[in-house]
Fold this sequence. Notes:
alpha/beta
Amino acid sequence: MITFISLFAMEFCGNVGYDYAKRRQMKKILAFDIDQTLNVAKTPIPDEMAEILAECLNNFEVCPISGQKFDQFLIQIVNRLIEVAKVTPAQLMHLHLFVAQGTQYYRYVPMANQNDGAEYDERNWELVYSFPLTESEVTQISGAIEQAAKELGFWESDKLKPGDEIIENRLSQVTFSALGQAAGTEEKYAWDPDCEKRKKIVERALELAPGFTFEIGGTTSINAVKPGMNKAFGMQHLIEELGVSKEDILYFGDMTQPGGNDYPVMEMGIETITVRNHEDTEFALRGILGIL
Length: 292
C-alpha cells in the first residue's frame, strides 16, 4: 500500500501537474462518479469516505453524478453522511445530486415541509428538473438491449434474485444490469472485468436502436439514453444551475476511457482525475483538504 500511494502521488502530481494550493484557489466544485469512485460498486460509501466528503462540504459544492436512481444516492451517499459523519442540513445545501447521468437534479431545502431546518428530513430533497424518456423510447431501448444480450448469450435471468430485474427504467435512462441490482459484489466484479461482454452488447444494441446512446458503467451495467443526454449533459446543467464555469470543476471518475460513462466529461474539457477505486479518490481528496 505504501508503494502504491507513493507511485500514485508521483504519477498524479508529476504527469497531471496537480498543484493542490493553486487548484484550491481555482476550484469551486468537486464532482464525482459513484461506483468504483466513491465506493465499492453498489454498496454504501465507506466510513472514511463519508468523513472526507463531509469535510469537502465545508469547502466546496459537492456533486455526485451517476446512472443510478435517486433512492440509491440516498442509500449509498446521503444516509452514510448523516449516520457516520453527522452532516447537518446546512452542509447538505452544498450537496447536489445529479441522478441518471444528470438528467435529473435534486437539491436539499432545509426549511421545506414546514421544517425549521435543524433536523434532516428526507422529504426535503427537491427535484429541480427531470428529462424523462417516453414510453415508446423505453420500449425501443429495452427491446434492443434484451435482444442483443440474448443473441450473444449474455442474458443471465436465471441468476437473478427474487424481485430483481436486468433492465430497469430509470425515467430518463434505461439501465441494463447483467446480474441485477441485488447480485453480490464479487459476482459483479467477476462477470465482465475487461468490459468485453458489454462492448459486444453495446455494439449490437446500437445496430438495433441506432437512435440512442449506450454507455458502459459500473461493473455489469450499460446505461442507455437519448443522444447527448449523458454525463456531459448533466455537467452542462450543473454549470448552469450553480452558475459556474468548466474551469471551476474538478471531476473524479473510473470509466474515463472512450465508451465509458465518464468519458463525455473529459471530452467537454472539464479537468478530470481518473481513479481505479475509492481509495484513489480518498488519497487525492486528503491532498486537497490538507492544504486548506
